[in-house]
Structure formats: C-alpha cells, structure tokens
Design a protein that fits this description.
Blueprint: E1 2-9, E2 17-24, H1 32-47, E3 56-62, E4 65-71, E5 75-77, H2 78-87, H3 94-112, E6 134-137, E7 142-144, H4 173-176, H5 183-199, H6 209-218, H7 233-242, H8 254-268, H9 274-283, H10 290-294, H11 299-302
Antiparallel strand pairs: 1-2, 2-4, 3-4, 5-6, 6-7
Amino acid sequence: MADVFLCERVEQGSEGSLVAIKRVHKHLLADPTMIGMLLDEISLGRYCSHPNLVATLDSGRSRGQAYIVMEYVDGLNLVQIREVLLARGLHFTRAQAMHIAIEISKSLAYLHELSDASGVRLGVVHRDVTPPNVLLGIDGSVKLCDFGFAKSRVQRIKTDAGIIKGKFSYLSPEATLEKPVDQRADVFAVGIVLWEMLTMHRLFHADTDYDTFKMVQRTEVPTLVSMGADADSVLEEIVAKCLAKDPSDRYQSAEAMYCALAAYEDWQELSCDLGQFVRQLKLAQPSVTTTQKANTGLLAAAR
C-alpha cells in the first residue's frame, strides 16, 4: 500500500536525524478503506510510547499523498535474518530466540493494556505479528511495527463479516473460522514466530493460500525436538501453550506469556549480544546494495 523512504530530518540548530517515511501509493488515495487504515495506524501510533514499538513521529499530506513519519530502525527484520542464517547454514540460538520473543511479548503486553486519556482501554489486538514486522536493530533493540491491521476501539475502518485481516501463515485458528479475535490471537502469533526461530522451519506454510489456511485450522504443531530444535520439556510446554488451538488453553494475556518466557530465560541463565548478532548478519548480505541496506528497517513492513 505504500513506498518507504529513508530521510534525514533536519531541525534548525540541531544535527539531522534519520527517519522512515511511509507514503501511500497514488492509486490508493481514492480508496476510502485504505485511507481509513492509514488514519487508524496514525491514531493508534500516537497513543503508543514504548521502546519495543516503532514510534510514529508525524503525519500529513504532501502534494495530495498521505504519509507517516516513523522512527528509523537501522538493522534487519526477522525474514532477512532468517534468510542470511539459512544461506550460511546457521540458526538462531535458544538464547537469541527467547530474547526476541520476550521483547515482542513486552510490546504486546503494553499494546493490549493501552488506554485513552480518560483511562478507558482501547482493546488493541495487533493482528499482524509476523517476521517482516519484527525489526532488530544493530543497537540490540527489538521493535514491533505496522498497525495497519490492528483492531482497537478507536479504529475508523471496521472489518466486514467474512473478511480476515492478517497473513495466512500467522493467523490464529479462531480467525480462520471467522470467530471474534482478541489478544490471545497475538499470543498465538508469537508462538508461531518463536517456533519458527527455534526450528528454522515454517510452521503453517503450503503451496497455496488455501492449503496454508487449512493447516492453521487443523493446528497440527510438531514438537520442537522432532524438528531438531534445542529444546527441553519446559520450553516445549511454553510453546505448546502459546500454540493451543483453543484460545482458552493459551496464555490469557501477553503479560502472562512474557512472564513465562522471562522466567524460563532466567532459569536457564540465557543471554546474548543481539546487537553484535545483527551487525554481523547485516554485513553478511552480499546481494544487498548500500542503499537497500539503509532502507531495511521498514521496507518489508510496508510491502
């Protein structure tokens, strides 16, 4: 729905800083649904202030085209990292995968509890927790981006009956059955992302969208150990609870999921230098030009 540009923000009397500008394609400007989604993204972004969320800095129109100015994350997203690792015959360590999942859970715990100025909860569900939307910075940061599909009390564009928001491979089973989704759908998505980092395989991915859709509905999840992952029985239980087919069997909140993941990390004394990991992988992208590297922070998210 948009192009993303790397720009320098210059303010009088201060040194310029890099930002990312997301600009809606011209041919979509006449589509009220697309513009409504953009306005919803802007509205929700303005409520948010959290180190694990990409910040919305400004918005407006230029020559008739709507845009959002966002924090620029110098790094890679999870899709790009996975591609580099696979090309080099490497994988995420358990410490890296757990740390990334914990940071995503922090962002969701904050989002899910977000309230307006009067203290009324907004009822936010991200609905697009996917590898392209998880950005890892060379400074070691982990940030969730893109509120385009988010559901909240302040959204202008309501999802019509029969319309499913989100990428098929990361939907929850209840979403595929056109049932109402709540915060537990985001818990399920984090479970998929974590399972995929630990195993270096796709969980729900088939040759066609229809077959992928059906895989999610069946929710047949191989154990981590059966996929060659470095996992013990406790980690198996945590991931299985995230990926329970029935929402009532999952962690009932992102906060509860975060607590379980963090407790496991502490118990196993896991640690990693995520910044160094990202810096090394960014340098290991031979097919990416310098200009493209500068735009990796949010390019995939806009697509």
